[in-house]
Amino acid sequence: MYFIALATDYDGTLAHDGVVAKKTLTALERFKKSGRKLVLVTGRELPDLKGVFPELSLFDKVVAENGAMIYTPASEEERVIAPPPEPKFVARLKRQGVKPLSVGRSIVATWEPHQATVLEVIKKMGLELEIIFNKGAVMILPSGINKATGLAAALQDLRLSPHNVVGVGDAENDHAFLQACGCSVAVDNAIPAVKDTANLVMRGARGKGVEQLIAKLIKRDHAIVPKRHDGIVLGSSGGDDTYLSPSDTILIAGSSGIGKSTLATALTERFVESGFQFCVFDPEGDYDGLEGAVRLGDGSSAPTKAQVLDLIAKADSNIVVNGLALRVDERPDFFADLLPGLSSFRRRTARPHWLVIDEAHHLLPKRRDDTRAVLSLELPGTILITVHPEAISTDALRLVTAIIALGPKAKDVVKVFCRETGIEPPKVIPSPKGARVLFWRPQAGKKVKTVKVVEPRQSLKRHSRKYAEGQLDEAGSFYFHGPENAMNLRAHNLMIFAQIAEGIDDKTWEFHLRTGDYSKWFRHQIRDKDLARETAEAEEDKTLSAEESRKRVLDAVRRRYTAPATAPE
């Protein structure tokens, strides 16, 4: 379930001549029974609203006075989020003959054509007030207060994101809150300006339109919105943008070092720009320093389930869950323990909007027989990143709605996916060139196309924490054994490498130096060409003593990798 709440205007939308029809009330009750929330957003003052709408208890929150007041029907708590009207201002309007004149906890309201008089009084008194129109009504509120600000406050109480709210309205004062919602809807009687900017326009007027909307939401949920309205741009193909939807489950795959993490980084930047909350599962420290996110865990301490769930509850917090301190065989258990709690939270709030699971074959491995139990029936807004799609749980692969394949083996990614899931492979698979990737929606019956993907603005130190503090496998580690294999000292990361290098004798150090072992390891296992190049220069300089060459190599390592994660690059 993606759309968790419906935010609706009252007069002209929910109600006709101030009265809500029984069929409309029945539709609202059905919406609540589906597990969703209701928010009423109105320009009316609360006492007036209670008098005309006794069924107010149906709503989880009420935004009254055009955004100035938040009311909770269940507890009857009233919270005014704007200052009260200036008594001298109200008195002057009365002296100027402005009537009728209604004064609320923050709002002051009248009718056209008194707007000219109101504006003149505001200017003469030098007040920071705004005039908002609503089909002939003239509402005066403190600057910056409108239905959008009121809705934001109500959603904060409910711990919901505006992305997961459908807003419906009809008049000028509804513009702000409708545009703040993940989907904006106009009823048929709405003014043209509201219809023009809405994502959807209902055929029914007022309550009938709301009833139709609720039926669509319960049946189709997020599918009511075209992807271009709330999607993230992956890139362009043939002049058209390609979008990823928060309802998608995406597989990003390709050979090692081909740019999968770089693409994921670019997508997180789009998430931040659009206000989507995201959580990155980072088993190997590839996303340290990711902008707009808080890191949990490092090379020496593993994150906990409680830490992740507590932080994700804050709607404005993005998280990188660093699993460097977890052994490879511990990662599936950690994820299996966390995923049910995270899935439960997502069912209630639809947050985080995006999960990015790097090294997905570690966290959702094919070899585990309990993956189906920890998976929800869907993984919406999820990006699975891997070098080995064939090693990911088949249950997880069958949830994939979009594939992004990178590099020279991109075609193989599509073929492997089809083999593992039993889906008929596409007849034609083009070859991506340059900065392009393959993009395919396997269940949509569409052709595989090549897309020029977005580039990230930020530069990450790829793998720096993994190589500095993590635990490389036996094949990837460095072994100090000396000229006669007299020892077998394993360095499973760069910090251990530096510690051992400082303690071994000069003969052992120089043996590996002169055979070029250090630069080979840095180039092929650490995959750092610059470090390898600088080290090779020391290896080839016969004038350096063992002490001098050792200092030069270790200084190069520490300068790149063992500085604090927050140190400037």
Automatic annotation (TrEMBL):
Keywords: Hydrolase. InterPro entries: AAA+_ATPase, HAD-like_sf, HAD-SF_hydro_IIB, HAD_sf, HerA_central, P-loop_NTPase. It comes from the Bacteria. It holds the Pfam family Hydrolase_3. GO terms for cellular component: cytosol. One of its GO terms (molecular function) is phosphatase activity. Residues 246-410 form the AAA+ ATPase domain. This is HAD-IIB family hydrolase. The lineage of its organism: Bacteria, Pseudomonadati, Pseudomonadota, Alphaproteobacteria, Hyphomicrobiales.
